[in-house]
Amino acid sequence: MTHEHRPSELATLQGDVRAQCVWSHAQMGVVYPSPHAIFVGYYPKPGLAITQELVRQCKHAIYAAFPPNPNQLTSATVGLGFNVFSTWCQDGTVTAEPPKGMKFRFPELGADGNELGTSTVFSRSNGKFQDSACHLFFHIKSDTAANCVSVLDIITAQLASVVDAAKTVVQVADSKTSSQGTGKVLGCRFTENFNNPSDPVTLAARTLIGYEDLAHLGGTYLLAQRFHINWDQIHNMSDEEIEDIIGRTTTKNYILPDDDTRMHIKCARGRDSEGNTTPVLRLGLPFGRRFKPGEMPMDLALKGANYADEEGIYFAGYTQSVQHLEVIMDQMIGETPGFMRDRLFNNLKSDFGGYFYIPSYTDLGMEPLSFARNKKVTDWSQQPGMDWDRLKTHYDKASANGWMHYNHAEYLNAMSTMSEEEALVKNPPSSRVMELMSHNFSIWQDNWYFNRKQPEFKHMQEYITEYYGAAKAAEVMQLPVMERKGWAIKMTLKVVASHNYGHRGTTWIEDGVEHTGPEGSNTYTMHPKEVIVGQLPNLSLGQGRYAMVYETEAEHIANYMSGCNEASGLGHVVPGHQKLLNMGIGGIRQQAADRLANEANLSDATIQFLRSTIMALDAVGEYCVAFADLAKEVADRLSATQLAEKHNLEDIEGRLRRIATEKPATFLEALQLVFIMHCCLHHNGEPVAVGRLDQLLNPFYERDLAQGIIDEDMAQEALDCFWIKMDEKVQQNRTHVEDHQKMGFLMPGPPMGTYPKASVNQWVQQVTVGGYVADNSAAAVPAYNTITKLAIRCARRLPLNAPCLSLRVNPLTPTDILEEAAKAVLSGGAHPFFINDDKIIDGLLNSGDYIGPTDANLTGLYDGKVRVEDARDFACDGCFEPLFPGKNYFTLSTMQLMEVLEAVLNDGKKYTAAGPNFLRGGVVTEPTPSGISLLTFDSFKESFFKQFQLVHMRFAQGVLGSYGARESSCPTPLLSAITDSCIEKGLDLYNGGAKYNVISLCIVGIPTWVNAMYTIKKLVYDTESAVTSLPELVDCLICDWGYNMVEPFQSELLSEGRTAARAARWQRLRGIANDLPKFGRGNPEVDALAQELIGKLCDVTLNEYRNPTLQSMKDMINSYTKRFGTEQHPWGGYQVQVGCATFENYVGFGIGTGASAEGRRNNQTLASDLSPSPSLVDEPVRHQACPFVDALQGYTSVEIDKLTQGAMTDFNIEEGFPEQDLVDVLRQFANHLGPNMMTITTADPATFEEACRDPEGYDLLRVRMGGWTEFFTSLNPDNQEQHRRRPISTPGTAVASHLRSARPLRTAVMASDEVKLSAKQAPKYYEARQPSGTGVTQQQKRVDGPPEKKRKTRS
Fold it and tell me: Is the confidence at residue 1184, as pLDDT, over 60?
């Protein structure tokens, strides 16, 4: 049997049973955080010893009084001094070598060089830590103090003849329970044992000895210390000073995001030699009272002393190896002899304690415990001595809807300990997946404690010199840019997959030797239980990228002037993963090599491109081999008893070595190859999406299923592991966010300055599922399969923000798919986002129409027509733009609509800067008609669209002019290799090589613009509701609604009373504007205007490409056709898509945008994408609640469907939205109600409010940012505030039956790609609804104010 076909001992249920085995060998109650405890240290009488039989008798006596059962929470964990247990191993009492984790990292040595059986951390701490050389230790636990005493009596009786009573150290400790039900320490200021592991999977993986030391399975290690508190010093500090010592706020325990490394929470977090954080289960409790009644000194009482002040804290920390404890203690001590780094230890000192080994039942010669396992899950409620709910008391918040988890601790606990009945409904991840999730969470949490800044790349020439010598480096630097890029790809992948660069933390193991150095990049690491391996770069899209420089000195200035360099790769396409899976790396390489070897008369540029492509593909193969080598290294470092992990790593190694050259043959090989290519592209500056994962993988799944290689549970687990790999680099501490952008970064269209930076955790990783089969059949065929459903389950069960899941829906979408999607939405991840297949495919089919060369002689060299099968195969790029997988070049350009509106209102000028220095502001376009001359709203609209056309004309020329600009400085041979037709043409993707060339035109601010236009109509032109004139409104907006009365629009020579009266009028006018109905909230009148305006906007935009006004644009299309087209391979021309998008930059776009007529003030946020506008930032929150289906109705229009790039609309619902109601909403959306795309964020207003204060307690709360999902607590406060103010859509109000019917679109009915949908074929529900007439009544009184106030002002 080959490794690939060997059943995995770690997989699904088999892995779960294996994990449970660890617990059966662990002492009952060992991890239970009891509220009452007695800690007892014993020493034997002279000449006597602590024997296994003696300890066993104690345990049996305790079990006789308190039998092990699920309801028993009284137990006693026994610990042995290291010398005691070593003696047991040496004399044969325990038939095994001493535990591996008992070996000290910092052993104390005697004069003879021999180890003294202790660690130097005790002597170096100057008495802060104590090693009391205790032989026997009991940690007695119970929910009642009386039971603790009873157990102590039993132990005392059993040990009486052996232990020295005079030396016995007994300490009673009890939790000081707060009103929240959690214990408190340090005078009730801080929660005890905060941030503990909370679930059986994490505790088994990080606290208990596992299969790495099979003979001692279930054992653990304990550091016990009885600390006394120096209250005289504590009470002379302010609360802020005490908080700075700990690193958390008092009472609420919110983390302080400070870089002070002396804070206790930073010193108390250690990492092992592989950079993994080593969590310690802290079960300490306060003991005693500092003051007895009547003995409190007055001076301390006046400084806050009270009778809740404990005498001290008895610390009990459990972990998997004594070295983990040593590392943490070493960090607390620091590098300066005689002093402690951890400032808490200026106020603490221990008088008793030490290290103890906590033996397993096998070590004690006892039978393991057993507890129930059901068909689906282990029944953890049946575990004796344990109440799992107590481990999550600090993070016990979760949504009442049953699907949504607010924080990772509660999530891990809930997913790991749910009942069988609940598991049948929720289908929790396997124990392996939960362990990998726990590992991920730990890496994320590290961001609060360590700054993981990735090392900079050196120049490519330096790396080539290092690896291949100076002569080779000089030779490479003489090559053309195209070939140098191939070398840059090779060296980038070689460096990131090396130990000295790619390690995590500050230490790494290479060739069996531990090295120390700067913080690594975490690009070459592997967990032994992973299924999919490889590593993505650290930086997200907005933070910039680490791109290896390969330009010469002479090229640098030219690149600077052009605004394009090695960091300018755009990516943002869907790679040709189907080609990759069909041919494999080796097959594609052979395709390029065959062209080089067999075709004569290739141009120099084609030869350079093909050579670079071959080198890039070889580099990917080498990257596979590097991770295969790493798998072998990790396997070799494992214990011989970790057979399951070793077998898993052997399987990984075999898969990687095969796919390095061969095409994949199995489901796991295909999944691994997709991720490997994904990593390689991202490392080389091409942030790309994944594509239609269900269509890519389903053939492999069906084949493996038929052969018995895989089942559905194993496929789900593999996909879960794939999902986890895509989200390892989350940055949750926004104070550690890097700004690594440089000029020319991610150049999406014409050269630009700064790419939006609000995307803290956006890596452009979109997975698309569902939709139609990619064929040209007369009737579209639904493409849903098992992988579709499993992918949606990944999004529901794993609280990640990436990959982003896109679900294509249509009238043929099965109900069970929509039900799975509804559950996923309610789980709070804003996954999946929904795409209406028929509307988008219609737009794609039309996107290349009427665009082409004007020179008739070039007709045969141009073919921009979109094929039906390509349109049906669309997938979303990293945000939401619909693209052709493996078939298109892409350029993205944004145009700010509100800037044009400002110019129309203000004589062609942008009034944001209006004032004494710039008068009416900066010039945007030619002068516009004065407001007084625009007598009707129709004339105002006409003026707007005239100016929009002029601005867009200049904009469009820049878009076309930038085509091919990257190729001279930033070609992309690797991405080109898996893009159809690039190798065939011999052209780079960025230089005419793709079949299609998508121009994505993002018009920014449409909802804000619509609302402003509606307000102008109602307040200026409507005879029933007008309350102002256009000239006054313009002055009002220039003066920011009266909040910034600037010259020369308001003279300072006027009296303060006159100025104040005018300002007050404008502020009242703002209140009227704010009260008007807004687009997307179910008001027929404003929605009808929106549809009209958006349709016109799209027509004007598209016409500039289909019928260019400028001859220069016509000339460019002719020139590109001649340059890139041949009769054999015509140039694919342009496929133009108009869309509306702010992505994450709704706040950024608002900055610099002047006050607008619907009530916005200067610089305030815009609405996101095409979404309903949030309530005004400086006003109380208005949630603008509206039935979801009513809101969708306002977007149901052929005019809005002209936004073919995607009318992305972000909706918010509360956590209690009924599941079936949500399924009904999704069904109506699939049946064409609403825009062509929508997202749904689930969160209550109260959830957002609390999350702003407590980032750890809500570290899984996620929100939609248009095309991707972000962790709410990672957002800056301005972005958080915008989300808090978004309108809420509610259940209820079904639309009429004809609105539920499927739309007869081209996609579903066409017989060929020549069929057109005429306007007459548009369905009924696209007919404009009759406006209801929302006249503004009594408004003039509001603007002018009450008569009394007016008279007073005038006087």
Answer: yes
